[in-house]
Amino acid sequence: RRLSGDSVYTDETCYLRGDTISVSFTNSYPYEDDWVGIYDEYADPHNLGDPIMWLWTCGTQYCSGSRSSGTLYFGEGDPDETGTKSWALPIGRYIAVLARNTGKPYEAYAVSSAFEVKSSRGSCDSPAPPPPTPSPISSPKATPNPTPEPVQPADVYTNRDCYAYDADIQVSFTNPYPYEDDWVGIYYAGEDTDSLDHPLLWFWTCGNQHCKGEVMGGTLTFGADPPDESQEIEWPLPAGTYIAVLARNDGPPYAAYAVSDEFVVKPPGESCPGDPTPAPTPYPTQMATPNPTPATPMPSPAPTPNPTPATPMPTPSPTPNPTSGSTPAPTPGAPDAIYTDESCYIVGDDIEVTFTNNDPLYDDWVGIYDSDADLHDLGHPLLWLWTCGTQSCTESRSMGTLIFGAGPPVEKGDIQWPLPPGDYIAVLVPDYDPYSATAVSDVFTVKPYDESCDGGGGTDVVYPDKYSYVSGEDITVYFENSHPEDDDWVGIYYSDVDPHNLGEPLIWFWTCGTQSCSYSVSMGNVVFSLDPPNEKGQIEFPLPQGHYIAVLARNSGSPYSAYAVSDVFDVTHPPY
């Protein structure tokens, strides 16, 4: 049963296309699979399909943790909010909803007021919405009939402002007074849009160069596949800066009645800053050894079973290890270089690897090996990524920075993330067998959780609020965690266990306070008691009479190793 305090609302009632949209929510009964989505204004809140865009309430499409309130940001760049469409929202009217991942059709348990997205060259005169009030949905109701909308101005815009060479270009338009001879064309930037000659490329608004029809809005795709868009030139567009226009066939000269923002096409081999172009899977090459089973992007073992929530939208799976092939090696003596951002890391810390590649090929990759690896006969890497940044892209890169860490992309090689404590190197390698490094980093060290990179121990501590309890009395355990992760937990064991060879705990909580939350906490406390939440491990609360310790540990798999251990405390029978 939902409580009455659920609400979701946007920070504005009107946005220009591309503006960041802030969506705040309150959630009276939060779960880790609650999410916020954006839908068309007249979507039925009790019968929702997949959202246009969405984020878990913890802020991304990859996190996992319950939130009772917060603010999410839908906009350009990270995090990715793609649902049935990618950013930016087209011109139109929308609602935001708060929902749970119970499967389609979804039912919203809070719905925002409608908000509007206008042309990037328009204006928003509406004031910000008033402070939110709880708005639970008490009973299903029919979808309201649309009311007449004011006529939108003509508009044309591209789905991106930068494209790799030969990448598809999607051009969307709205046309309030359509004619069958309206068309969308592409020109060089700087053309006089009131006196245009023939376009470089073009389509009628109905979608090709042969159809006829009046179309009020849509999206056209200029690319290598049919239909043909040729006019002054053929596909692909050469490197340069361009505009898209919406025009009528009353010339030449033609006068555009809508003009897009400028967009850039990069030269072959170059990518757009901060947004690598999607590419096909790596060129197939002969495997010297059997292909390892792909791992899931975010393994989540737990002291007790803890199901991973399903996502509303599918995510791609990883591709196999780099494999042997016949690609020639880079020119001997080329000034390739590779280095890490630090010389020391704690287990689980992100590792940034930067490289320069004098003779780049699409199947060059960066791998991590033990520091004593044979650089001329490397074997398969512990972890690896193509130089274009994932295990599924295939583009050459002359330089770049790759991030090995807990989140996407998957970097699994012979092992999964994280690297265990030890000494390692990063290498730059062309994909031919036997693998031979063309550049090698300095050795870097990964240290255990209970150590630090300054040579001293960490500041990890765990301790109970007192050292003698009556059975059934609340036990509060405090902790400080110098390198917190979302899979750290506090557990209670009998006092005679080996802290470096721990089995399953008697009772336990994640450091965020329950067995179902999932976010990192650097300092806090958990309370074991007869009241919810449930702390059951091997046994249920209350603890029987005995001697115990509390531990702070990470979910690295049984046997666990504690990186902080409390002094012994006692539990006694209640007096009679």
Structural description of this entry:
With 576 residues, the protein is mostly beta strands. It contains no helices and 36 strands. The protein has strands at residues 7-10, 14-16, 21-26, 34-40, 53-56, 69-74, 92-100, 108-111, 115-118, 155-158, 162-163, 169-174, 182-188, 201-204, 217-222, 240-248, 258-259, 263-265, 337-340, 344-346, 351-356, 364-370, 383-386, 399-404, 422-430, 439-440, 444-447, 461-464, 468-470, 475-480, 488-494, 507-510, 523-528, 546-554, 564-565, 569-572. Strands 2, 4, 5, 7, 8 and 9 form a 6-stranded mixed sheet that branches. Strands 11, 13, 14, 16, 17 and 18 form a 6-stranded mixed sheet that branches. Strands 20, 22, 23, 25, 26 and 27 form a 6-stranded mixed sheet that branches. The two termini are 41 Å apart. The relative contact order is 0.09. The model is unreliable at 126-152 and 275-334 (pLDDT under 50).
Key features of this structure:
mainly beta; six-stranded mixed β-sheet
Topology:
Layout: E1 7-10, E2 14-16, E3 21-26, E4 34-40, E5 53-56, E6 69-74, E7 92-100, E8 108-111, E9 115-118, E10 155-158, E11 162-163, E12 169-174, E13 182-188, E14 201-204, E15 217-222, E16 240-248, E17 258-259, E18 263-265, E19 337-340, E20 344-346, E21 351-356, E22 364-370, E23 383-386, E24 399-404, E25 422-430, E26 439-440, E27 444-447, E28 461-464, E29 468-470, E30 475-480, E31 488-494, E32 507-510, E33 523-528, E34 546-554, E35 564-565, E36 569-572
Parallel strand pairs: 2-9, 11-18, 20-27, 29-36
Antiparallel strand pairs: 1-3, 3-6, 4-5, 4-7, 7-8, 7-9, 10-12, 12-15, 13-14, 13-16, 16-17, 16-18, 19-21, 21-24, 22-23, 22-25, 25-26, 25-27, 28-30, 30-33, 31-32, 31-34, 34-35, 34-36
